[in-house]
Design goal:
single chain, three-stranded antiparallel β-sheet, binds S-adenosylmethionine
Amino acid sequence: MNATEHAVPMAGVPAAGAPVAGVLDLAAQRVEAETGLAFAGAKRRQFDAALGRMAEALGLPGAPACASWLLAGPWDDARSALCARFLTVGETYFFREPRALDLVCDYALAHLARAEARPLRIWSAGCCTGEEPYSIAMTLRRRVPRLPPADVTILATDLNEAFLDFAREGKYRRWSFRRSDPADLAAFFRPLADGRFEIDPQLREQIRFAGLNLATGAYPSAATGTLAMDVIFCRNVLMYFGPEQVKRVIERLRDCLVDGGWLVVNASEASTQLFAGFTPVYHEDAVFFRKGAPPAPVPSTVAAPAAPVFTPPVAAPAAAQRPHPAQPSAPLIAPVVAAPDSAMARVRALADAGRREEALQCLRRAVEAEASSAPLQQDAALFALEHGDRTLARHCLRRLLYLEPDSAIGHYLAALIEDAAGRRPRARSLLRDCGRLAADADLRGAVQHWLERLS
Ligand SMILES: C[S@@+](CC[C@H](N)C(=O)[O-])C[C@H]1O[C@@H](n2cnc3c(N)ncnc32)[C@H](O)[C@@H]1O
């Protein structure tokens, strides 16, 4: 694509010589308004770097020129495609977070039991290269064979047309099967000479792939086929949007669902405050929101065990208590200092008053309300460990490592849990990652010491 024909300055576009940061800021705002993709705070550098690459693809001299091009004139397919190509994240694989597939099967069985005349309607919103909708189709064929494929419609949409073309072609490399084995899926895939696997054409025909921008597209709407959905998957999409956009998208997705229908998001996206009109149902690795049902009780899957289980390895407390060169009495893993009126401060106040159960209840609420806050998840994991709720701690650490895959502390705490549960190989692997990621010499030392004891 060459942008020079689009690059004519227009009214409202910053003039040449306008401060570069200002132009980039405006472009980031426009991209967020048009695509939902938000690049505030730490993500902003990613945006500036991507603008540089976009400029190259357009044959423009640099990021500011590309920003001006994005700002000039009406938002069109060329701008949308460029943003989709350079700003979206294509991370996906077959059978991701399988508990959501259990939900679809349970729903399908209930649908069959009710002998409903209408087809079951499922939507994968932000389907990427197709692994998610194909996993849904395969799971239903396998586990609910009584449901004829003709009685299920699966809509799969995305902003990125290149991802959709890939999905329609349906040829996947081994990497897409990183949590599954293509050999187990022989009924659905044909191995190709080049090492890829091609999806069964019948399965492909069951899915309708279509472009739909969740930020500005038409839904619910008969025109896009997004009415009366039973289950909507919108996993690992909202996390890239700004808070206002997330709220609007959730409201509109809710309007696309039948009463009692389900919205599935990733656990780290599931701040319950955003899901008005839904009942959350919690699992350790996922949260499902049911439209219109009465409020659910606190999830049993994150209930506290009876006794504290925080038994760090012998090496860790010693290292933890070793004086830190810069902060003489700093512990190895210091809780984030909570503002006096913050949820963590309330949790600690309850614990200090000897009200452990209430503290953990309060913590569970905070963990869901601030699902996308990495510091909160880290602090909550530490607190949960200290107060004997290993399940809650794991829940928080999963989120922390999702939000910050390079968190050394997250790896360290996860290793503690794995070790306490007797899963030593997993603990070792987490510790090795922690050692690689840790900038802090004390933490690296503690990891080394602990690894030696585990070997
Ligand atoms: C990380 S992938 C998630 C794929 C899949 N849902 C999963 O969980 O495995 C995020 C997808 O969201 C899509 N996306 C981002 N912004 C979007 C928008 N405004 N409208 C529709 N899709 C969008 C991206 O193109 C990308 O395919």
